[in-house]
Design the sequence.
């Protein structure tokens, strides 16, 4: 679904890595590991199209990269893009419209992420873990095959890490793929790829 060949990334004066290769298959999860500053976020941003690599190629099977980035990828970074002044319900509706999710998709997201009690709260009043669950809602509401996740579990407690593991496994079982930058093990079976070695 995703192939990276000979990728080199430079930030400022620093070469993060050169000649990096990665293949991500349907049904596969890859845990991207490496020390602080190794370049995990930078790699994910390059895959999502936010950073231009110095060299190398990024391919999404036979899908044009612009099309893939617009319609086939879910990107969930440190900054979740949620608007603090909106109520969770409004944010969810906005995201559903933006991503083309239908009512059934939104209802499924509210259900599996237990968002119902939070819907009338302003996003800025959610706890970090509650907010992360809301950020995950779009991944459930509007299915897309490739998930690029940057430290997705940092604010989540053990119960919600496990629950997100079930959501991720369901995504993989449907033929999706996950590339997640992590410092802790993923709650699904995953191949580890270390950056900066
Ligand atoms: N906008 C920027 N301009 C210049 N350098 C940057 C920029 N953003 C990040 N960097 C540098 O790129 C390097 C890699 O950062 P990156 O965030 O990709 O690392 P990471 O592996 O995700 O780290 P962490 O585990 O701490 O999240 C760091 O040395 C960082 O200082």
Sequence:
């Amino acid at each position: 679904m995703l192939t990276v060949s000979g990728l080199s990334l430079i930030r400022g004066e620093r070469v993060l890595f050169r000649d990096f290769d990665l293949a991500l298959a349907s049904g596969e999860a890859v845990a991207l590991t490496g020390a602080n500053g190794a370049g995990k976020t930078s790699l994910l941003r390059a895959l999502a199209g936010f950073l231009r690599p110095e060299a190398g190629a990024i391919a999404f099977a036979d899908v044009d990269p612009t099309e893939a980035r617009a319609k086939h990828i879910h990107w969930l970074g440190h900054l979740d893009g949620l608007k603090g002044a909106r109520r969770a319900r409004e944010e969810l509706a906005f995201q559903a419209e933006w991503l083309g999710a239908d009512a059934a998709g939104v209802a499924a997201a509210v259900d599996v992420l237990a968002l119902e009690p939070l819907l009338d709260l302003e996003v800025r009043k959610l706890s970090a873990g509650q907010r992360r669950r809301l950020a995950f809602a779009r991944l459930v509401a509007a299915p897309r095959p490739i998930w690029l996740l940057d430290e997705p579990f940092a604010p989540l407690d053990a119960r919600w890490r496990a629950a997100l593991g079930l959501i991720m496994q369901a995504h993989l079982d449907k033929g999706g793929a996950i590339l997640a930058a992590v410092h802790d093990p993923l709650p699904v079976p995953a191949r580890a790829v270390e950056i900066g070695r």
Summary: DSSP finds six helices and eight strands in the chain. The beta strands are 2-11, 14-24, 29-33, 55-59, 73-76, 146-150, 177-181, 191-194. The two ends are 25 Å apart (CA to CA).
